[in-house]
Amino acid sequence: MSEHVAIVIVSHSPDVAKGAADMVRQMVGSEVSVAWCGGDPTGQLGTDVAAIQAAIRSVNGPMGVAVLVDLGGAETNSEMAIEMMADELQGGVVICNAPIVEGAVMAATEAAGGAALDAVRATAEEFLS
Amino acid sequence: MAPELMRAICDEVVTRILANADELTDLDQAIGDGDHGINMKRGFEAIAAQAEEICGLPPGAALQKAGMTLVMKIGGASGPLYGSMFIAMGKAMTAPPDSQEDLAASLAEGVEAVKKRGKSQAGEKTMLDVMVPVLAAIDQPTDDPLNAARQAADRGLEATKDMLATKGRASFLGERSIGHLDPGARSSALLVHAVCDVLEGRA
């Protein structure tokens, strides 16, 4: 897993997060590690800082992690999660300003080619321009 | 600050949030995703469950622990926003506060943290439209800082009604966000009133 930037998908909905991860695996293959989480601490729609940290931890490696988020709280909670685990992260962890499904697939495609985290993020964010 | 006073503030803040959770949800259903009351209730119930432990700590550490509890339990954007505010206020409180200046200095750090976390400023129909005026009200010598803080909170909250939301879910509504109070501003006003009322001996 350490040769590629990993992808973490954070949605308010576990179904959306898992579905986006499935699409990445099918379209890009399994050489890029993908983790996902969705739902608040009680399983309702929302996001969970502890679950986001666990997802990042599960794929964390020296190449870093690109995080794709859906709406407001997913981004805010992901920022909080990343700040709180700064000491244990090997590579960088960045949140991509990109649509969650398209961004995840684009990021993973770039990561599969061995690109560095900055390039992975830039590719995901190209979708906006 | 005596442990009994901290416990009184903690209990009153929890009581007000729980008592008004439905109103927060109603406000959020109008312009957001309708979960603000539920999320705040969950977060402050988690604080209530740990009240004894939290209030046994020095004030700065207690605020940080309460903030971390909100971050981990809320599951919506209000978790990191209120959590960051409490954590920053706690970090700034290196000694128990014993003056209006001490409280203002701590709150100033809290407000900065909210601005940074939310990438937001006052005037964007958020909790900052209450917290920024409240800070301004107590950040200067005044005869009745508690009343000044409450009035600033009420005016700030009321002002959100005519504002156009540019942050959070409400921004998707554009012009249609005008005419509604902001739910985050409402929850901030509830917290300000609760704290001021306890400090004044009213609650």
Could you walk me through the main structural features you see in this protein, from its secondary elements to its overall organization?
The complex is a heterodimer of chains A (129) and B (203). Chain A has a single domain (6-128), classed as Rossmann fold. Chain A starts with 5 loop residues before the first strand and ends with a helix. Chain A contains five helices and four strands, in the order E-H-E-H-E-H-E-H-H. The mean pLDDT of chain A is 94. In chain A, strand 3, helix 3 (72-84) and strand 4 form a beta-alpha-beta unit. By secondary structure, chain A is an alpha/beta fold. In chain A, 47% of the residues lie in helices and 16% in strands. A four-stranded parallel β-sheet of chain A has the order 2-1-3-4, sandwiched between helices. With 203 residues, chain B is an all-alpha fold. Chain B has one domain (3-200): Serine Threonine Protein Phosphatase 5, Tetratricopeptide repeat, CATH 1.25.40.340. Helices cover 69% and strands 0% of the residues of chain B. Chain B has ten helices and no strands. Chain B has helices at residues 3-19, 21-31, 36-49, 51-55, 59-73, 78-92, 100-118, 128-138, 145-159, 183-200. The two termini of chain B are 17 Å apart. The mean pLDDT of chain B is 95. Chain A binds chain B through residues 39-42, 44-50, 71-73, 76-77, 79-80, 84, and chain B through 33, 35, 38-39, 42, 71-81, 83-84, 117-118, 168-169.
